[in-house]
Amino acid sequence: MLALGLSSNKRNRRDMKDKNNEQIVFEMLEEVATESIAEAKNAYTYDEIDDCYVEAKKIAEVAKVELEYYKQNNNI
Questions:
Q1: H or E stretch covering 40
Q2: What is the DSSP letter of 6?
Q3: Contacts 24+ apart (CB under 8 A), 60-64
Q4: 3-state SS of 18-35?
Q5: How crowded is residue 10: how many other Cβ atoms within 10 Å of its Cβ?
Q6: pLDDT single digits (tens) 6-55
Q7: How far apart are CA 24 and CA 18, in angstroms?
């Protein structure tokens, strides 16, 4: 009984760590995409850069949905 609880606890910690790592990756994707979009559009003002961030956030959201779809269909 105790061994089962410990195994489940380890799995939960691993799942939380994986979720945290995924969140870090998506935040990095947002940052890199924002910088790339801003550079491509020659954005300099706060409003222009903010628009680039919104665009980058949409890109990251699509990537997250695609990853979830891939994980569910490939038993990852």
A1: helix 2-40
A2: H
A3: 60/26, 60/29, 60/30, 60/33, 63/26, 63/29, 64/22, 64/26
A4: HHHHHHHHHHHHHHHHHH
A5: 10
A6: 567 777 787 788 888 888 999 999 999 999 999 999 999 999 999 999 99
A7: 10
